[in-house]
Amino acid sequence: MKQSRLYTVSIHSFFWLFTLASLLPFLFIFIISISSESSINAKGYSFFPSGISFAAYKFLFYDFTEILKAYGVTIFCTILGVILCLFITTLLAYPLSRMELPFRSSISFYIFFTMLFSGGMVPWYLTFTNIIPLKNTLLAMVIPGMLLSAFNVLLMRSFFMNSIPDSVVESAAIDGATEFKIFYKIIIPLSLPIIATIGLFSTLGFWNDWYNCMLFIDNPDLYNIQYLMTKSLTNIQFLLMKSNQSNQVGDILATMPTETVRMALAIIGLAPLLFAYPFFQKYYISGITTGAVKG
């Protein structure tokens, strides 16, 4: 009895420590973002800065137009991209889970093959600039990532195969339900865990995407928050390009440590995901464990 209790306490303690260790980088970034310039120059990065300053956040909120606009672009592209990604993934994964689908194994292998090899950067870029003219449009940050990875399709296919009995589908078909009605009325409601899991994966992918914005977007009005952060991390002056009060902001920037502004930008970019993840956690764990029973 004592050994069992000791084992339980040890396991719980280990995972609590592991969780706290995972949170330390976020805490460290936040502490740096509220540190003063003098403490960073004197002691470097520290969990216990000698001076606290919110100058970085004051600077970012001094002219919040650019960040607010980038947030709007990111939120729009993330919502649209996740909806389209889930729509395409479910429509592709469900037929692959049905044994009666012709060439089911060949199609599944082709999808798996795309996880190992791709067409290359140049053909991919030319496709979305010449064949599908997406340059300098919001769709350039949505369409290339609508099907983020074949892993999502295979994971959802495994969930359909392992978690939804064939008898449920067969009984609905006997009652006269069409394939679309079976999919919409039965399959989708029973698949909320895996849909939430893939939705979380897709949300992270679209929210953190700066690469497509770098390749396809030249208009600063269409920059998303991650690309704005990326440019700002290398050059804080980028935030002043379209400011109507650049002289006043420049005076503030001259007395401000660069690192705190960078860390404050990271906090602003990460905060929405940190608050959203707990709402997905229950479905996320259920979808992963259920869909991974067998391939």
UniProtKB/TrEMBL annotation:
One of its GO terms (biological process) is transmembrane transport. It is found in: Cell membrane. Pfam families: BPD_transp_1. One of its GO terms (cellular component) is plasma membrane. It is a multi-pass membrane protein. Its main location: membrane. This is Putative aldouronate transport system permease protein.
